[in-house]
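tokens incoming
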């Protein structure tokens, strides 16, 4: 049990994980969903799409699978896949609690998820996760921790999380927002029973928004593991017609695709244990997986490093992306 089992897998694609945010619910903020998904996004259609992605990911060497309570039915879809493949025992399964999905499978819902980092929310959502994933759960993270979250100071919650850690589940956090570095550093200092509580840090990091980089280096130096999410910036770095010119140039030079370049640039960071693909189609996933063996030279990396946006501007733009 636990995230550390990933160290047993040395295949290049093992550094890429599959996130199910884009296929666990009918609406999300990734660009291009009208192109990537059918107009009639029934539960069964999305279940089938998730199974196709999981099959492809596993065959190509992906071993970290990521869900969350707020990803609609992602935990259910993942549980179905695991049940249908009892021979698969070498994947590491992660999920998150702290947001509740409230859109009732509607793409036009006024609100899609509600945040609650209280101990009560943990107990409620932990029970739901346990009913679906049971002893297959390896990593359980607080979803979208920010510096003002009560989860950083709630000792009763810390005791509950430490009890789960004692059962072999790795406890971690995911972070969001322009102050991710502050949240990471605060979480690094949280202890329970005299030992560090949070062992994994799942953080938004990409060519446009690398502001958490120094804090993630500190996390790795402290012996924690780093999972990078949103490496293609919700599609902003992925579409051939919309990716920044520097990304398209490097893609042309390397005979690859913009999404692979964006992912490869993050994989070049030695502190990144796993970089998530949020693919919604099998061709997208295969394109993402090419990043595992794509090598970028120093000139290309320097060119890509020039794409950085101010964190506040990046997160403001992200908040304006439509749920589609």
């Amino acid at each position: 049990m636990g995230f550390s089992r990933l160290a047993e897998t040395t295949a290049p694609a093992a550094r890429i994980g599959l996130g199910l945010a884009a296929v666990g619910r009918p609406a999300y903020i990734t660009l291009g969903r009208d192109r990537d998904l059918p107009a009639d996004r029934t539960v069964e259609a999305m279940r089938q799409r998730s199974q196709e992605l999981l099959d492809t990911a596993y065959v190509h060497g992906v071993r970290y699978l990521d869900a969350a309570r707020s990803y609609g039915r992602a935990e259910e879809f993942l549980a179905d896949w695991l049940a249908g493949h009892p021979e698969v025992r070498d994947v590491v399964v992660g999920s998150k609690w702290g947001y509740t999905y409230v859109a009732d499978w509607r793409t036009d819902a006024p609100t899609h998820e509600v945040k609650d980092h209280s101990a009560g929310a943990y107990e409620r959502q932990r029970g739901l996760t346990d009913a679906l994933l049971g002893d297959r759960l390896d990593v359980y993270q607080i979803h979208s921790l920010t510096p003002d979250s009560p989860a950083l100071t709630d000792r009763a919650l810390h005791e509950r999380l430490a009890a789960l850690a004692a059962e072999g589940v790795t406890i971690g956090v995911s972070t969001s927002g322009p102050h991710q570095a502050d949240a990471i550093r605060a979480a690094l200092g949280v202890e329970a029973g005299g030992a560090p509580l949070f062992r994994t840090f799942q953080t938004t990091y990409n060519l446009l928004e690398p502001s958490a980089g120094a804090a993630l280096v500190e996390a790795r130096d402290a012996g924690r593991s780093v999972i990078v999410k949103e490496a293609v910036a919700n599609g902003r770095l992925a579409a051939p017609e919309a990716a920044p010119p520097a990304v398209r140039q490097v893609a042309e030079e390397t005979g690859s695709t913009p999404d692979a370049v964006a992912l490869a640039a993050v994989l070049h960071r030695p502190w990144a244990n796993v970089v998530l693909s949020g693919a919604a189609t099998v061709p997208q996933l295969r394109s993402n997986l090419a990043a595992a063996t794509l090598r970028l030279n120093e000139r290309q990396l320097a060119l890509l490093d020039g794409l950085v946006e101010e964190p506040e501007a990046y997160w403001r733009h992200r908040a304006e992306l439509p749920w589609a």
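note: Residues 64 and 212 are 22 Å apart (CA to CA).
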